[in-house]
Design a protein that fits this description.
Chain lengths: ~300, ~300
Amino acid sequence: MANTDDASTGVVQRIDAWLDEDMSVRRAGIVYVVLGLYFAFLLLPIVYMLLASFTSQDFLFSPELIPSLSDLTINNYVSVLTIGEFQRYFVNSTIIAVATTALVLTVGILAGYSMSRFEYPGRRGLLYAFLSTQMLPIVLILIPFFLLMYDLNLIDSHLGIVVAHSVIGIPLGTWLLKGYIDDIPESLDEAAMMDGGSRFDVLVRIIIPLSMPGIAVAGFYTFILSWNDFLLVSILSQTEATRTLPFGLQLFQAQNAVAWNLLITAAIITMVPVVLLFALAQKWVVEGLASGGMKGM
Amino acid sequence: MSTQSAGLSRYGEEFKTFLSETWLGYVMVIPATLILAVIIGYPILRGIQLAFYEASLLNPEQMQYIGLENFLRLLEDTTFQGALWRTILLTGIVVSLQYLLGLGLALVLREKVPGVEIFRSLSMVTWVIPVIVMVIIFRFLVQNGFGPVNIILGNLGMETSYWFGQRGPAFILVIIMHVWRNVPFYAIALLAGMTAIPKEQYEAARLDGAGALQRFRYVTLPQISTVSMIMIILHVTFTFKNFDIVYLSTGGGPLGSTEVLATYVYKQAFEQYALGYGASIGVVMLIIMLVFTVVYVQYESAE
């Protein structure tokens, strides 16, 4: 009994001693191995699909795992990008995601500024009401939502999809922006108003420039949720004129046969804009989504 | 006379402040509130109302009030009960795995090894790509015949198959996709929580003779409990109500082995045209999530 106790304390001490070590070569080595395992799991699927998109259908239907240099081709990209419908989906996705982002940022900055700086009854309750909409099962809303959009004549229109996406983006967008605006010292507002500026001047000259990182995070979040959405578009889009990329990918999946080379290429093209945007915004996103979001609590 | 006008003007000043401040505050939240109220508030009330009616998608105007009949039917619907159990199981497994793996990733990302920033910035990429693209990636990886997973299994002399078409493996693949997509988000959020812990607390614990494991248990874990709570509530609700990951990858199959509540509601409403019955399942989902969130927040704030 005493022996096993001693043994386990010994193990704990050894682990403690090792964890306490300053960055030794051995410790760094283990960190890299663990990072390697994680990132193999996370990135290999994407990297392999990227590689496969540069090969022909012949290679994809061969028992080979790794393509040789002679297998590589850009034909899939040429084929997909020259399909008229696909170009149209790309344009639709861009218009809808940009318009959604603009709408969410506009109403979100106003609401976040109001919730951060003004005292009025029901302010806190309103923020919680906003956030609680995130908990609703979307499938429960789907039918009345469809009927409502039908009554509002917003079926199969860009505007209808933009409004639908905005509803998903506004709660978290407002919350994030409020958190960032809370961090701007109110003395700056007061100084500007002392100089005769209106609340609107404060918003434009002080709040917006100083909460740019928050605007970047909220804008990025809204853009990707709109760009990535499948469900709402599948309900609202009835014709080619409003179809977006995620919904349009079914173009390459016929009833029985899947054109894998074209499908994975189209899927890559669909994710390129959000990945590029993420690369640009990741400094703020990685810091902001986590820490900025918590400030709002 | 003069005092009266002074009093009046003071009243006027206050009224002006009220107008410009309180009203301006209201005016600025109106656009966001109005959009949410019309596009979400109204449909959710209609959805809850539908749960007490018999209504068909073919003729949604003709609704008949039937009280709790839809809910009573749920008690005898074994498909619903299977989906409910599967949804709870999926949510439990997925969120536990995500939290443990996310915590592990946060701990290695905290290590100050050269190049770790690159890993930090790369990590969230799985979280930003569209769900449909993720599903295509995984279906491509496990496709029958010449999918890379099957090529490897074949070379090892093991069984090959279209794994989304097999009952057990399909469920496991759904779990893997949830984990793959969201672990980095946990890691980054937990890492931010850890970075915010004052160094002095670790120093103090060290002086008290606490080893690295004890410092993790008594300094790190309590300090990240709020972030942990936010991440867990966020992902329990996300997984519990998730529709697209399951629907796009397996559609609830094969043979109902991945059917969850969200896909079952969708099928009841859009394939069986049973709007009222589908809505009653949605209401059950809503109640379960509300109860979970309230109980969890109470528990955490009691600690």
